[in-house]
Structure formats: structure tokens, C-alpha cells
């Protein structure tokens, strides 16, 4: 698979590069665009401030420019937290998208969005302060209305970005379970 993997508000950190390497080792071609132009952050708050300062439209523009040269190949869009919201937006706007892998995050769904039978897999902590139960229920119903084929995996007791070994949220057991299921999902798309 050809995978466009977007980073969280921490920026393009070593953990994102390690995740991309893990996907490459499983036989996938992976791109990791740096939407923050080399900036990384030590806290969610710093990253969110930079994201807000840069602006959603500008960050989406950067993401579209990064994905455009490869979209004809049929991309799987993937991302971590904020990057998952970017991936979701791009996947729902790309009729050649092959799949959507969301790690730790979702996004609003544009009215009238269509994703006919797009395979979507979401992995989130339970509970997750950024992805509450009410939000996820509404998101799931809305994604279903787009025509997407959605699977949700919840990991009890894990922190928000539990796949990042450099953060306090890290949960080795949940991270390994996530990667096992996600790699199976990606294999199923081939």
C-alpha cells in the first residue's frame, strides 16, 4: 500500500518516523509530510498553539500539496491525533483513496461528504479526553452516512497518544495490539 502518514501536534517526531519505518518493514511505501516545517513540540499545548497560529486552512493546504503527487496511486491516508483529522479530511475528498487509518483522532465530517465503501479503521484510548464517547458515537453514525465501512478499536486505560513511546501516554500492550490490527487492516486493502 501507498500510505500518507500525518503527524500529531507534537510535529514530525522520532516516534512518527519509527511508525513509518514499521510500516515500510511490513512492505508498504510511506510518506511522512512535515506540516509544521521542521518544528516539534514538547507539549500538546505548544503544538496546539502553533497549529492555531498557522491556521487550519494553511495546514490543510500543506497536506494536500504533500499528497497530490501520489494520490493517483490510490493512497491510504493515516495519521496520529491531529494528523488523523488531516488524514480523514483528505481521504473524504479523494475518490481514489484506498483506506483511512486513524490513530488517536477523528475530525468533523463535511456535510454531503461521500466515501462509498471506504475502509476506515480507528484506534483510540478509552476513555480519551479528545475523543469522548458522545463524540465517537456521533462520528461513527456520520461516517456511516458517508458510505464508509468503519471499524473502531478502543483501548481501556491507555493515554491519548498511547502508541508514542516517547510520551507519558505510552502503553506498550495497547500499542502492540494497535499495530497488529492496523497492519492486518492494511494487508486486507491490498
Topology (elements, then pairings):
Layout: E1 2-6, H1 14-25, E2 29-31, H2 44-54, H3 56-67, E3 75-80, H4 82-92, E4 99-103, E5 119-126, H5 133-146, E6 149-156, H6 172-189
Parallel strand pairs: 1-2, 1-3, 3-4, 4-5, 5-6
Structure description:
- This protein has 190 residues and is α/β, with parallel strands linked by helices.
- Helices cover 41% and strands 18% of the residues.
- It has helices at 14-25, 44-54, 56-67, 82-92, 133-146, 172-189; strands spanning 2-6, 29-31, 75-80, 99-103, 119-126, 149-156.
- The protein has a six-stranded parallel beta sheet with strand order 2-1-3-4-5-6, sandwiched between helices.
- Strand 5 (119-126), helix 5 and strand 6 (149-156) form a beta-alpha-beta unit.
- The radius of gyration is 15 Å and the shape is globular.
- The termini are close together.
- This is Dienelactone hydrolase family protein.
- GO terms for molecular function: hydrolase activity.
- Its EC number is 3.1.-.-.
- Keywords: Hydrolase.
- It holds the Pfam family DLH.
Amino acid at each position: 500500500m501507498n500510505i500518507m502518514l500525518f503527524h500529531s501536534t507534537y510535529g514530525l517526531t522520532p516516534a512518527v518516523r519509527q511508525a513509518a519505518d514499521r510500516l515500510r518493514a511490513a512492505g508498504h511505501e510511506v510518506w511522512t509530510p512535515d506540516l509544521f516545517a521542521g518544528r516539534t513540540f514538547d507539549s500538546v499545548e505548544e503544538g496546539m498553539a502553533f497549529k492555531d497560529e498557522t491556521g487550519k486552512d494553511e495546514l490543510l493546504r500543506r497536506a494536500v500539496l504533500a499528497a497530490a503527487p501520489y494520490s493517483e496511486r490510490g493512497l491510504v491516508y493515516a495519521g496520529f491525533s491531529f494528523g488523523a483529522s488531516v488524514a480523514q479530511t483528505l481521504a473524504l475528498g479523494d475518490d481514489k483513496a484506498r483506506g483511512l487509518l486513524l490513530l488517536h483522532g477523528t475530525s468533523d465530517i463535511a456535510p454531503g461528504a461521500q466515501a462509498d465503501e471506504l475502509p476506515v479503521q480507528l484506534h483510540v484510548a478509552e476513555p480519551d479526553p479528545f475523543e469522548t464517547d458522545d463524540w465517537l458515537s456521533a462520528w461513527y453514525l456520520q461516517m456511516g452516512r458517508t458510505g464508509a465501512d468503519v471499524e473502531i478499536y478502543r483501548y481501556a486505560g491507555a493515554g491519548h497518544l498511547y502508541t508514542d513511546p516517547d510520551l507519558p501516554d505510552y502503553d506498550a500492550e495497547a500499542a502492540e495490539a494497535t499495530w497488529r490490527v492496523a497492519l492486518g487492516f492494511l494487508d486486507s486493502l491490498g
